[in-house]
Amino acid sequence: MSGGKRLRKPAAAKPARKPEAKTIAKPAEPAMDVAVGRRIRDLRRVRRFSLETVAARTSLSIGFLSQIERGLSSPSLRVLATLADVLGVGIAALFGASPNSDGASDQVVTRGLQRPELKLWRTGVSKQLLSPAGADNRLNLFLVHLEPGGSTGDELYTHDGEEAGLVLEGEMMLTVDTETWSLKSGDSFRFASRRPHRFSNPADDTKAVVLWVNCVTGAG
Predict the structure, then answer these.
(1) 139-146 and 125-129 as β-strands: parallel, antiparallel, unpaired?
(2) pLDDT given for residue 25 in this prediction
(3) Does the pLDDT of residue 9 top 80, yes or no?
């Protein structure tokens, strides 16, 4: 009709957009457990130790050791240090290059992007190996990251060697024997690893970073 208002046709409804599926990244932690377990198994076989022998020397059950070697259990730093001790190596031998009968390393330099890392994701502790990897290396340099609340556990532990370090960031609580210290950025330490010890990050929201040196002194 002339002079009347022209009615617009209702716009066609747009089809509802389907929500985009979120890509969920698979956690890398289980892969880390598998890799560490394989290294422990390889070292044990190179030494020609049975699971029964390792279990007797570590006071860990055969079943638990088997789970660690198969990557079904994430061991604590205390357990890894105990296993490395029995296998006659430093903890650095548990990550980096696969061990063999000649575990010494001729490498001199480790590039920043080539650092092997041992991430103990259940306890909030990770260790980057700054020195060249090798199963028979006696002196190893690490960059240790402690997440807020990260800890080696309530139980003190011992292993072969000596260790020293420098707190670069944050705060770390260090217990050796019956004494505990609060170490902050710029503080350093040294002690024989046969003395019972543990360490942790007491902060709720701040990471601690420690430059750490381990020296294996035993014959292996």
Answers:
(1) antiparallel
(2) 43
(3) no
Whether residue 131 has pLDDT greater than 70: yes
**In this structure, what CATH number is given to the domain that contains residue 178?**
2.60.120.10
Q: Which two tokens stand for residue 65?
A: 């050791």
CA gap 158, 197 in Å, rounded: 7
- For the chain, the domain total comes to 1
Supply the pTM of this predicted model: 0.77
220 found inside a domain? no
Looking up tokens 């046709």, which residue turns up? 9
Tell me if 24 is assigned to some domain: no
- CA distances 9 to 1, 6, 12, 13, 15, Å, are 16, 10, 9, 12, 18
Q: Is residue 15 part of a domain?
A: no
Q: What's the rounded Cα separation, in Å, for the pair 29 and 126?
A: 11
Please give the residue range of the domain that contains residue 43.
29-99+111-215
**For residues 143 and 112, is the Cβ–Cβ distance under 8 A?**
no
146-181: pLDDT as tens digits:
999 999 999 999 999 999 999 999 999 999 999 999
- pLDDT band for 122, please (50, 70, 90 cuts): confident
Which residues lie across from 211 on neighbouring strands? Answer: 143, 166
Distance from C-alpha of 118 to C-alpha of 91, rounded to nearest angstrom: 10
48 located within any domain: yes
Longest dimension (CA), the chain: 107
78: which strand partners?
Answer: none
